[in-house]
Amino acid sequence: MEECKRNLVDEEAKASLDIWRYVFGFADIAAAKCAIDLKIPEAIENHPSSQPMTLAELSSTVSASPSHLRRIMRFLVHQGIFKEVPIKDGLTTGYTNTPLSRRMMITKRDGKSLAPFVLFETSHEMLAPWLRLSSVVSSPVNGSHPPPFDAVHNKDVWALAEDNPCFSEMINEAMACDTRRVVPRVARACHDLFDGVATVVDVGGGNGEAVGILVKEFPWIKGFNFDLPHVIDVAQVLDGVENVGGDMFDSIPKRLRCGAVSSVRYYQFTNNRAQANNVRR
């Protein structure tokens, strides 16, 4: 009996602490976004001294209030994103990067940084639908209820991107940073898979980075980057890659279907599985 009471007290004590995770759970992503926006990882990485970067130096470099920045950095150090270490004089401390903070460099295109993805997912456009999750869960199973994104913005993600160039660029950069991380590894691990392949079509290829990496790795391949016209209008011009505009749900040009390996990244954004599967076929 006494043990049951002790367990109940322990559970209550734990719950009284855990509830604060949900009160301030947003702070993790807000602080990470702040670090990316201010380019704090870059400032520390480019610090000319071999010593850790002091708060005064950091606040001057990123043009931030020292008192406000100190609080942000204390939180980010606690989260393990940065390190705070003593400087040689032993009187002050300074900040250094970690492998995690280096993955938050918005200016780095090394195949490790996911900073553009963080900024995309923490944008108002992407966060707002999460607050409508309960309306989807409580909607009738057989009723017609728009997805949270559509309900909030009165249009789907692709229509919003077409009307909002900044949001469209966010999507493309988020996909591109993940592409730089994944596609080179796929190419190295599956080298034999591309022997004899003459054409690769990336359906929903965004700025063309994925197929560009493949064509560079396998120069005998002709690459096609197929996406919506407003995306193709700002896509990169890459050697060996032809950008083609169109709507994959209307049709994919016949010349892109013949003897091609295709990839479809749209699938991760849609909840319409039947529609996405039709594109895959």
From TrEMBL:
GO biological process: methylation
Source superkingdom: Eukaryota
PROSITE patterns documented for this protein: SAM_OMT_II (PS51683)
One Pfam family cited in the UniProt record for this chain: Methyltransf_2
Keywords per UniProt: Methyltransferase, S-adenosyl-L-methionine, Transferase
GO molecular function: O-methyltransferase activity; protein dimerization activity; S-adenosylmethionine-dependent methyltransferase activity
Keyword Zinc-finger: no
O-methyltransferase dimerisation domain sequence ranges: 20-105
Species the sequence originates in: Brassica campestris
Name listed for the protein in its UniProt record: O-methyltransferase domain-containing protein
Family named by the database record: Belongs to the class I-like SAM-binding methyltransferase superfamily. Cation-independent O-methyltransferase family.
O-methyltransferase C-terminal domain mapped to chain residues: 147-254
